Amino acid sequence: MTEENLFDEMKVALIEFRVDPLVEMIQAAIQKGIPAEKVIEVLSEGMNVVGAKYQAGEYFVTMLIIAGEVMKEAMAVLKPHLEGRSGGDLGKVVLATVAGDIHDIGKNILSTLLTTAGFEVIDLGIDVTAEDIVEAVKAHRPLVLGMSALLTTNLEQFPKVVTLLEEEGVRDGVKVIVGGATVTEDFARAAGVDAYAKTAVDGVNICKEWAAATLN
Amino acid sequence: MCMYEDLMAVYRGEEGRPLVFQPRLKHWFDVNYAAGTLPEKYRGATLEEVFRDLGVTPREVWGMGRIGSEHGGYFSLKVVDGGDVEVWTRRIRGKTGGQDDQIVTEIRTPKGDLRQVQRVTERGTSLINSEYFLKGLDDLKVFEYVLQERSYEWDENRYEWGRRRYGKVLPLRANTERIPIMWLIVGIMGFQRTVTMIWRHPEEMRGFMRVLEEEHLKMIEAYRGRPVAEINFVDNMHQDLCPPPYFMEYAIPFLKRVTPKIHAQGTVVTSHWDGFMKQLIPLVGETGMDGLECVTPLPQGDFTVAELREGLGDMFIRDGIPAVLMCPWTDVKDLKALVQELMEVFYPRLILGFSDMLPANGDIERVRLVKEMVDEFNSRL
């Protein structure tokens, strides 16, 4: 089998969530001397297809979760061969579900997708205060800050964080994206953030655009 | 005016009765009461006095039920666990004096133990799981044992208490557990773990869902012969949690088997859908249910009122006004337009309310505004 064929079959296995054949192919690739980084690149292309299928309505959130599980198993095989590199070439993203809110399904899916897309994700978890979020931004200097909230009572945390970022002088250095079922585009705009994502896949695509603009 | 008959008319699809506006206000009331932020005119008032002041129909008020439960229905059955099943619950105080307390529940059985951790949110008015009972295959066996030993009894005392207060006003709507797939996702296993488990262990999970179905049959049997007008699955259905493939494989077959049994008892069947549902709307007709509760159109959900009407056929809806339109930063014109459309499109198959409740930071005066629109609509009937 040529390398190209192997790579194509890996992508198909990922897209169809056939984890055992995928792991076998990854092991075969490593044995052939193909760098782990190259395999990750191939798998990232596969994840892009998964994302595209989701956006086209062909795949669903449940499939994004399964794809994430498949990627985790693939990465477990690849990790010993990464020679000290940990990925995250596209940049850092700090994620948090804001103070008062502990609904984190969307954030967790976004975290998985961002990681597999090549971002380094620093996930602060749930119920994170504005002060802690800003401290994390100051400490990690990420490309992107992503915040989520489900309850309308917690949406006010978005402008609060933005104001605090400004007061601390770090607003210009970070792109801010928000999401959550009760967030509307109008609210996001008024809150002073840079982008609003209706879905996790939308969020990844926006982050990728920002990363591309930065890297270029 | 007789609200009881007006509500029953919705179940029956009868025209000519006044449209009922029955908003869920308890969450708004409870949070603002706890925070000391109720509007001046409602300080010292009871929730029922707020309902009366606004001139809107209360939801069923039968007692406290579970934490966060309210007028929108309650679990009318007492759960009786097996003699060798111990259920221990303790509350761990959080750092903010009640707002972030944790409630730990441990179930101890001869087959093994289960543990769940819930966190109290929104000033003690709501709960959310941070740890679920079911974490792996072994836990399924333990939970199956718990359910096998469990029985249900009609809660006569509670019913009598409610009947005396609201029996002439409101038909009794009884909640029941979520359908098996949603019971797993929302109630006992969690979303991501359920998805992963179905992917890794499809046969075991399918078998376990049949165990949950048996439990539903026990609950339905316990309702037999009782004065229940409607049984509501408290599903929290959302297409991202239960996408069409899951819905077709797990939800529709279950509902096709169970709904006729409820109908045979003379009871209407509904389910609580409170998320994105555009992809599920075309499938809902296959379930055999009579109506949906909550249903959240754009801008909060992902579908229009017209799409909902077309997809639901003859089913009725309860609620329909996206909660976000009650928030002060949204345009009142959008609220009015949506309410008008809901009334025109869905009456007489509509019990108007919020999807799914007035937010704690919602504007109570917008409730009054909606009431005025309902009065205007009813004056033209």
Q: What would you say this structure looks like, in words?
A:
The complex is a heterodimer of chains A (216) and B (381). Chain A is α/β, with parallel strands linked by helices. Chain A folds into two domains: 3-81, Methionine synthase domain (Methyltransferase, Methionine Synthase (B12-binding Domains), Chain A, domain 1, Orthogonal Bundle); 92-215, 3-Layer(aba) Sandwich (Rossmann fold), CATH 3.40.50.280. Chain A has helices at residues 3-15, 19-31, 36-55, 61-78, 105-117, 130-140, 157-167, 185-191, 200-215, and strands at residues 91-97, 119-123, 144-148, 175-179, 195-196. A five-stranded parallel β-sheet of chain A has the order 2-1-3-4-5, sandwiched between helices. In chain A, helix 5 (105-117) links the parallel strand 1 and strand 2 (119-123). In chain A, helix 3 packs antiparallel against helix 4 and helix 4 crosses helix 5. The longest helix of chain A is centred in the first third of the chain and has 20 residues, at 36-55. Chain A is elongated, with a radius of gyration of 18 Å. The model of chain A has no long low-confidence stretch (mean pLDDT 89). Chain B is of the alpha/beta class and 381 residues long. Chain B is 41% helix and 20% strand. Chain B contains 13 helices and 16 strands. The longest helix of chain B is centred in the middle third of the chain and has 22 residues, at 202-223. Chain A binds chain B through residues 17, 57, 60-62, 65-66, 69, 100, 102-103, 105, 108, 127, 151-153, 156, 181-182, 184, 186-187, 190, and chain B through 31, 100, 119, 121-122, 128, 130, 191-192, 195-196, 199, 239-241, 243-246, 275-276, 279, 299-300, 323-324, 327, 329-330, 359-362.
